[in-house]
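Inverse folding, one chain.
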């Protein structure tokens, strides 16, 4: 694949983040990759109280999107090959800390309350994509008519408000 094809793939992929939301907290994570996206282990994770205002939430989303990067297939294989154990351990430790910090009885209880919104900044638009929780830890994207789309240059307060609207569209078998 030549550099112009890679540039086109990167442009289409855009910048990506995922927000895990429970009634107690929001976790904003940068996603990187090349088609297949993963929680970027080199980026800060933003953990916010669910009572934070739209500006604070929008600022965290913008910061996460800013760090999102296109990773070639070779780099992606390298990350998974050399750092998979580190990534899994970090995720497990983070989950245990959230269970304790937010007074959940178990990780299962926390997972059942978690809803996900994917965010993509691409071609001048920011798209918030709500999900359906099919089972604890298993999510499916909802149809495009449920997406929330705003201009990519929107202020943090509008970004936070768009996230909340997308979150309100999330569904779950546990509701």
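Residues assigned per position:
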């Amino acid at each position: 694949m030549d550099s112009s094809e890679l540039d086109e793939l990167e442009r289409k992929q855009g910048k990506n983040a995922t927000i895990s939301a429970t009634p107690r907290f929001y976790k904003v994570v940068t996603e990187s990759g090349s088609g297949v996206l993963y929680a970027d282990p080199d980026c800060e994770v933003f953990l916010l109280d669910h009572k934070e205002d739209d500006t604070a939430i929008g600022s965290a989303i913008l910061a996460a999107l800013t760090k999102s990067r296109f990773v070639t297939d070779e780099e992606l294989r390298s990350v998974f090959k050399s750092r998979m154990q580190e990534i899994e351990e970090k995720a497990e430790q983070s989950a245990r800390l959230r269970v304790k910090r937010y007074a959940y009885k178990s990780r299962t209880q926390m997972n059942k309350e978690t809803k996900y919104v994917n965010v993509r900044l691409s071609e001048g638009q920011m798209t918030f994509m709500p999900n359906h929780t099919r089972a604890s830890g298993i999510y499916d994207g909802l149809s495009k008519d449920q997406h929330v789309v705003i201009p990519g240059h929107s202020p943090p307060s509008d970004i936070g408000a768009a996230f909340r609207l997308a979150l309100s569209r999330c569904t779950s078998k546990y509701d």
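The radius of gyration is 16 Å. The chain has one domain: 3-172.
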